[in-house]
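Make up an example, fold above all:
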Amino acid sequence: MSPKPPDLRLAALRRFAAAITTLNVLGYTLLGFEPAYAHPFVALATAYALELALESLDALSRGARPRFLGGGARGLVDFLLPAHISALACSMLLYANARLAPVAFATAVAIGSKYLLRVPVGGGSRHFLNPSNTGIAATLLLFPWVGITPPYQFTENLAGAWDWGLPAIFIGLGSFLNLRLTRKGPLIAGWVAGFALQAALRAAWFGTPLAAALDPVSGVAFLLFTFYMVTDPATTPVAPRAQLAFGAAVAAVYGVLMCLHVVFGLFFALFIVCGVRGAWLYGEHLYARAAAARAAPTAEEVQS
């Protein structure tokens, strides 16, 4: 019997969780993170509690055993990895001064969206909205005084070779995770090429300085979005062509939002594209169900 192939999704989750945890620790101790120290702890507590509660309720409604049971401590940790990543992403990318409620709210929306907003796929269902991005987008919409953490905080205390070293680490680690484990290389290519194209079109059609339109690429925040946000394995396509289209669509929507002077366009663009993809998947489900109903024999045909 051939050995069971490794679970690449679980391997990716473990490495994503380790990477974002390390970034938060270094951010608050060395890099210059400005959100309150309590933010990541509030986010983690909210995410863990809500993930366990919602999974328990979902399992109870299906008459099944919660997924976090039966695997011991290791199984529990692995189950909580997505919640851990979403919580730290929300607390790291949102700036609410010293207030804790917006961070808890963003985290709750991120976790809740996975259970409440799902589409039928195959024999089951799956969530279609990127959890952490959904929590961030909802918070930015409902709390106008909350913003995104200033991009300079990721390199505020760095100088010399580290000005290049830290981005190189992000690119190297992100490339390894997405090319080797999540297999999202085409999506990244579509997103980066689409971003360059929308910048060029805005420069040609609306007079936006090309350097200004491309300027976000030079920041660490863009690298985090590219390698750790837009490539979420659970809410993006699998087929290479679909990945390419998904990444290009996010860039196109971002360009439109910029032309409309909508701030925080990265997060809203990803939210819109994920929502459209979810509607498409649901439409495919309805079409397949209608086709099956048409193909099924009628009562008269069965009796004849």
